[in-house]
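Researcher: Let's try something more involved. This one mixes different molecule types, so please make sure each is placed in the same coordinate frame as the others.
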Amino acid sequence: NAGVTQTPKFQVLKTGQSMTLQCAQDMNHEYMSWYRQDPGMGLRLIHYSVGAGITDQGEVPNGYNVSRSTTEDFPLRLLSAAPSQTSVYFCASSYEKTLGSTGELFFGEGSRLTVL
Amino acid sequence: KNQVEQSPQSLIILEGKNCTLQCNYTVSPFSNLRWYKQDTGRGPVSLTIMTFSENTKSNGRYTATLDADTKQSSLHITASQLSDSASYICVVRGDSNYQLIWGAGTKLIIKP
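Model: All components are placed in one shared frame. Result:
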């Protein structure tokens, strides 16, 4: 019962460094997404994908890249880290692409990123 | 602008007591409304998803209500337990795209 797995759980970067947050799900979900969570704010969508080879931007995509080469994996790349990207990042997946009434979102445990 | 507002921001109650959390939204058109529970340091977990036609939905000791006319929802927790200490997040899906609009959450603390 792995569900959605994110790695790493914690990461400290220096400004300008790049890194990739990994996300994998074993539920054969077509929909996958990345959110960031900052204190006092609702989750904000960074990028999402409705299937292998298909990605799209969310609310706050600048500074992040994604790709979806397989159904299972959806990595998030930080190209040149900035202190404003210090946050907790969550990967989520859903069986239903349109997030309708049966489109429950399943979340990973989060990746806490600090950029110095 | 599509928004989801939750109140109160935080709430402390004694174990065994009931409480109600509020959610007001301005999302239009509306598709569905969700409540999530997020334990500290963990990812959100779905409690319920309600559509336009549903007024009340229960999940154990959690009961969600929805009034689509006034654009209000509430989450009622009965006979609270220490494990109910968490943030509770209201989320609305509009009808125009696939994206969800998230509230900032209510932080609930249950004291023994």
